[in-house]
Description:
The complex is a heterodimer of chains A (252) and B (246). Chain A starts with a strand and ends with a helix. With 252 residues, chain A is an alpha/beta fold. Chain A has helices spanning 40-48, 70-77, 95-106, 111-124, 140-152, 170-187, 198-204, 231-237, 241-251, and strands spanning 2-11, 14-24, 29-33, 55-60, 63-64, 80-83, 158-162, 190-195, 207-212, 215-220. Chain A is globular and about 55 Å long. In chain A, strands 6-7-8-3-9-10 form a 6-stranded mixed sheet, sandwiched between helices. In chain A, strands 2-1-4-5 form a 4-stranded antiparallel sheet, with helices on one face. Chain B has 246 residues and is an all-alpha fold. Chain B has one domain. Helices cover 84% and strands 0% of the residues of chain B. Chain B has 9 helices and no strands. Chain B has helices at 2-17, 24-39, 43-64, 74-113, 116-123, 127-165, 170-178, 184-209, 215-245. The radius of gyration of chain B is 21 Å and the shape is elongated. Chains A and B meet through helix 2 and helix 3 of A and helix 5 of B.
Amino acid sequence: MIExxxxxxxxxxxxxLDNISVCFxxxxxxxxxxxxxxxxxxxxKCLIGLYDPDEGEVLYDKIIFNQLSFSExxxxxxxxxMMFQGSALFDSETVEDNVMYPLNMFxxxxxxxxxxxxxxxxxxxxxxxxxxxxxxEISGGMQKRxxxxxxIVLNPDYLFCDEPNSGLDPKTSTVIDHLIQEITEExxxxxxxxxxxxxxxxxxxQKVVFIYQGTKTWEGxxxxxxxxxxxxxxxxVFANAMAKQLRKFKLG
Amino acid sequence: xxxxxxxxxxxxxxQKVFSQPEKKRIYYxxxxxxxxxxxxDSIGIVVIISVFMGAMVTLQTAYNTENPLLxxxxxxxxxxxxxxxxxxxxIIALILAGKVGSNIASELGTMKVTEQIDALEIMGVNxxxxxxxxxxxxxxxxxxxxxxxxxxxxxxxxxxxxVITGVVSSSEFIYGVQYAFVPFYITYAxxxxxxxxxxxxxxxxxxxxxxxxxxxxxxxxxxxAVVYSSIIILLFNVILTQLLLS
Lengths: 252, 246
């Protein structure tokens, strides 16, 4: 379980996050949604420790993460898997080496064991016969899946995904969404996904947190969104005419 | 005041770079990779430039010592001392600041803007140490080898110019190269090379590691890396010369 308590963050005079408190549960896909520039990426970076919040606490299973030293954070970080918006695969290494990297760095497994684990993870994300290709030689969707394989290779307790569907077609997006959900349920990870893709919200949003101008203005289940009376959330979710009609239809 | 902030940040980065390595075996693998990328791949340019510089220094010395009162072997001596004292250490360092420095800054800068460095940090890897330490060690240990190659090849270039143009006989040139040789000059050149290797790698890494923005910023960081490395090399050239030769 990951808990954020009263998180605030400023860049110069600009207040990006204002007193956000939220609890992300284990074994669930938790989604952070909001418009571009609402502060959701900064919030995610505060949760994983890339930014230190100006105020507030981030707790990983009751341990205050943002007050730990670099070496103490390291222990928790090895339990974190992260899938970046741009995949962040190492350009100079093959698909296999990218996925094997955390195993090389943090385990003492034999080469055979590591290869077996890598192949298991690649197979889990439906990547086959691509072990020796470089990231530049595979498609965007495949890169995302390799990034997901790398994120889960150490069996993480916490999985973070920043815009996992950005730049992908709807079908591939759905595949990625379902993969994340299956992995979350299979390995009981605390999964936090940063997205503004409404399909993801409807498909896998077990818990959704809506951030508007740096503050949390709504939280609830994915399906509850349709019935929310929060004006900012409705403006965000039902931005186009078709979505508005769908809401009308749903509400009768 | 901004310069003090940069200096502070630079030394904080160095502190991170020289902290305890996570897994020595992985660092060794990186170290071997960096020797290939930063040292072996530079041999070609060092050899080409040194041959031509050796030849040019020889011809210019010959042109300036046409006075019959000056012995002809001074041409060989001039070529040797120019190569050892200044060219093979300082000029090669400036050239490597352009080649290796921009390479390091753009590599780290690209890794930064594509979030590869963030990915390392999130995994719990000390990214500064993992990425920069092997580069520094590789260049500090092996750049003196490039200096030695440059000296040898430069003298060969000088001899080649002598043989082709006939400004002086081959035996006189070789006599001049051997005449009044001071072995400490080699030590002096190698000490300078070690300092310059550290300057090139660490300053370029600093500029690449702290890039923020996009590809345009990576290009700018790469240019800044070359400019600042070159200036600091020239500054340290004066300081080290005063300390070692005075």
